[in-house]
Design brief:
This protein is α+β, with helices and mostly antiparallel strands. It contains 4 helices and 15 strands. The strands form 4 sheets. It has a 4-stranded antiparallel beta sheet with strand order 1-2-3-4, with no helix packed on it. It has a 4-stranded antiparallel beta sheet with strand order 5-6-7-8, with no helix packed on it. A 4-stranded antiparallel beta sheet has the order 9-10-11-12, with no helix packed on it. The radius of gyration is 33 Å and the shape is elongated.
């Protein structure tokens, strides 16, 4: 028995089934078939098939719109600028993630709010350009380095704690803490990797072998292994425990 137009329209556009007139398990295919079987419709109404296709096109359009918003969300970004236009050489989140800390070409710290990315503070930190910054694993201290071979210790409140010079005055591009935070490693344009004692503020070992500027360094998170990368196209792995054992035997 053909379905009437107002019954079909109520099924699709009303958002629910009219149980008094349509079976609860009526599917879209059945509805289309019913429209094919129906020969006449009430005056002033268009074809049931056209109405159903119109609804389908609306659903497809809505899905396209939703996917468009999803794509837009993946590329959404905020651009924050400051009146001092200097290149940013390094950056890091503060331990709690509430603020973003950046170091610029002029050796200045800039602190930004981590929620709305508004400017909070700018202060002089190094005499030359920033090159690197790294937080200790316990998040109690921050290390920074510059293009003049200077390394500085900072508290979480960005108060200066200690300063030391190394790498023969050459730029220091990388810093990394040991797993216990008792030592840290640096690398620089003097083609060396150097290991420091954190509490004693002194250099313990100079690792050589690269033929050009060393641009990056990382201490293994669980062992005494240091990896470094250089402009000489090499990645070197240093086993500190093995080196220390060899040095003890040589003594």
């Amino acid at each position: 028995m053909p379905y009437k137009l107002f019954e079909a329209h109520g099924v699709i556009m009303g958002g629910g089934w009219n149980r008094g007139k349509c079976h609860s398990e009526l599917c879209l295919f059945d509805l289309l078939c019913a429209c094919d079987e129906s020969k006449e419709f009430e005056s002033g109404h268009v074809s049931c098939r056209i109405k159903i296709l119109g609804v389908l096109f609306q659903v497809i359009g809505l899905l396209i719109l939703l996917f468009s918003f999803a794509d837009a969300a993946t590329i959404f970004h905020i651009t924050t600028t400051f009146t001092v236009n200097e290149s940013i050489r390094c950056l890091s989140w503060t331990p709690g993630g509430r603020r973003l800390l950046t170091g610029n070409q002029e050796g200045e710290f800039t602190l930004w709010d981590g929620v709305n990315f508004s400017f909070e503070l700018i202060m002089s930190a190094h005499d030359t350009s920033f090159r690197s910054m790294a937080w200790s694993h316990n998040q109690n201290y921050l290390l920074t380095s510059d293009s003049g071979g200077n390394i500085k210790y900072w508290s979480p409140s960005i108060a200066p704690v200690q300063s030391l010079d190394s790498h023969d005055g050459q730029a220091i591009h990388g810093l990394s803490f040991s797993p216990s935070d008792t030592k840290f490693v640096s690398c620089g344009d003097d083609a060396t990797v150097r290991v420091f004692d954190w509490a004693g503020h002194r250099e313990e070992r100079k690792l050589e072998g690269h033929g050009w500027d060393v641009k990056t360094v990382a201490w293994h998170p669980r062992s005494s292994v240091i990896c470094s990368g250089s402009k000489d196209n090499l990645v070197k792995v240093s086993l500190l425990d093995f080196i220390e054992n060899v040095m003890r035997r040589c003594r």
